[in-house]
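New to this. Help decode the following:
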Amino acid sequence: MTESATISSTQRRQAIDKVTWIGVLVNILQTLSKLIGGVMTQSQALVADGIHSLSDLITDGMVLFASKHAHAEADEEHPYGHGRYETLATVALGILLMIVATGIAIDAFDRLLSDQPIAIPGPVAIAIAVFSILSNEAMFRYALNTARRVKSSMLEANAWHSRSDALSSIVVLIGLAGTMIGLPLLDAIAAILVALMIAHMGWKVSHSSVQELVDSALDSDTVESIRQHIDSLDDVKHLHMLRTRKMGDQALVDVHIQVSSKLSVSEGHRISEAVEHTLRDNFDEINDVTVHVDAEDDEETDHTEPMPILRNELIPLLKQQWRDIPQTHQISNITLHYIDGRIEVDLFLPLSVIKSLDEAKELQNAIRHASEQVHNVRRVKVYFH
């Protein structure tokens, strides 16, 4: 178990909010310095980077909103919880990034095609770009470490957003330096490169979260590890129809396990609990496990054939067949096994109804022959106790 397994929902939200509020303060400083400095030095790349930082403030607000709602307790309308708020916020964050990138790129291309002279930025613009690089890189490392500790894909996406800010500021710095040494078009080219980087990050963030919204499975390595942990339980004969999906920082698992057809309902349920506890104990992200207990591999069952009748219809039919066998009036219990579309019957009679072994065999044969006249009954065993 990792450290994240001991973090409560409240602690997780507090950690996300703390990182995000620090990011808000950093982005306010960056936005003001870049926009003011960009206008003063007439650096298009610095203004573009300032708009990028302004978009960060919006995404920080989205993160705070999603963090509040995603950690709300499950209710009647949301029985699986509210984790998808976090996923939706991540998708919106990615889309916003791509919109911002498009605007920056269009403006930069207009600048490249314009005949107006491009101003030469001064040392102030260089200092602002350096400040942006250092603060964004520090913010990236802090946010990424927290995101991985609390397993928040939304916070990790926001952390990589900070890393993209740092990289874009490096590009801006190169553009500024190029403009100062006599290559004025580098400023607009740098703005276009910044836009491409922002768009790439937006696509990457939104695409992964959209996959979560359409219930894509966990990665293949994790699914295989889940399979191995279930297979390791002695009472599980086989597993099939293993399905997984994500919901925010959590994962949901649905699996069918095959157990012996001779087990009681309570023992089958106990084995399903063992499967659930095994997965919860070994995978921090798994918080919901649904286990279907099967007596056979229902993936291979022919579902086009009509289902055998249930107990309330079957028992009267059997008793009708047993009407001429007086010993069956003392039946103490009937256990039914539904296997391969057929019914197997275990019949329990008191030992007092027979006087000899030969009489027991005759009675068994009579009951068996009468029972197998009922459709779908393929085997009958009689037990004396």
